[in-house]
Amino acid sequence: MSAILEVEDLKKTFGGIVAVDGATFDIEAGSITGLIGPNGAGKTTTFNLISGFYTPDGGRIRYDGRDLDDLMAPSRDEKLVWSGASGITAGALGGIVGLGPLGFGPLSSLGATVVGVGAGAGFYLGQERLKQARESHRNSRPFMLARAGLARTFQITRELTEMTVLENLLLAPQGQAGENIANAWLRRDAVADEEEAVLERAEAMLELLDLEHLRNDRAGALSGGQRKLLELGRVLMFEPELVLLDEPVAGVNPALTEQLTDRIERLREEGYTFCIVEHDMEVIMNVSDTIVVMNEGTKLVEGDPETVRNDQRVIDAYFGGA
Asked: What is the mean pLDDT of residues 289-311?
């Protein structure tokens, strides 16, 4: 198998505290990788760096062969849209000034508009160049990673509590045609077809996660374990390739824990890749193909569950060697 995620010499500090110090490991496509370690080992910080919520102070992270910075950077089209928007806004203001009480007729309005367009576009592009020139500048836009196929869940679930379970799933897919008001009027058939396809996917997801009987219940009324299942379903509606799970069974009863881990294993067989941060050692040992153990910000051990379970360095890190 090839690596879908490559972490190389990763570093992160908070003030004088070194949270991650040279961590290096790969995640193989189609695998389940556990990321574990004692409290303060740096695994949560590493997780936030991989998912784009923190900016590394050093090292590189590559997803599917591309640097995370490149994936999160504004595209050329985005820059053109925003520079154009800046120019139009400034041009409109210039036109208003030209036609206002202080204006001198249509020609002066046209001149003010042209000057405004140039000033707006120039201001936008200029501040972008200044930002890029700063050594400390990094693009941090985790939503772009989700669009590229790298999505995550959170230890504390973030469902939309006043919406139903089904509505939470329907809202998850990005870039739906119906979100554009012009499409809603001019491409009604295409919008309807897409909505039907998304509904079918959501219904299949409810069945996969055994949440069909709760489809019309408010998400805020679910138990903790059911919310974990719903959050997994929302992430899967993105159709990602790599899913980062942040303590998926924390606070979940044994029955739902078994159900959740069973779903994760089934999804791995369908081609999904998972990286899991988890404190429940029984779960992580049973579900993982590979386990990365961190301690004091560095990778301590990497290997299959049996190797990790019997490594004296891991025992010492968790229990404090003799």
From this structure: 92
Q: How far apart are CA 42 and CA 12, in angstroms?
A: 9
172 or 63, greater pLDDT = 63
129: burial class by Cβ within 10 Å (0-12, 13-18, 19+)?
A: exposed
Superfamily of domain 3-69+141-159+242-319: P-loop containing nucleotide triphosphate hydrolases (3.40.50.300)
Residues of the chain with CATH 3.40.50.300: 3-69+141-159+242-319
Beta-bridge mates of residue 316: none
Pairing between β-strand 273-277 and β-strand 32-36 as defined by DSSP bridges = parallel
pTM score of the predicted model? 0.76
User: What is the pLDDT, as a whole number, of residue 86?
Assistant: 60
pLDDT band per the 50, 70, 90 thresholds, residue 174:
confident
| C-beta atoms surrounding 114 within 10 Å | 15
Q: Is pLDDT of 117 > 70?
A: no
CA nearest to 284, candidates 255, 264, 313, 267 = 264
Q: 233 near 211, Cβ under 8 Å?
A: yes
Q: How far apart are CA 181 and CA 179, in angstroms?
A: 6
pLDDT range class, residue 318, cuts 50, 70, 90: confident
User: Does the pLDDT value for residue 107 go beyond 70?
Assistant: no
Contact 280, 47 (CB under 8 A): no
Say how far apart CA 213 and CA 178 lie, in whole Å. 27
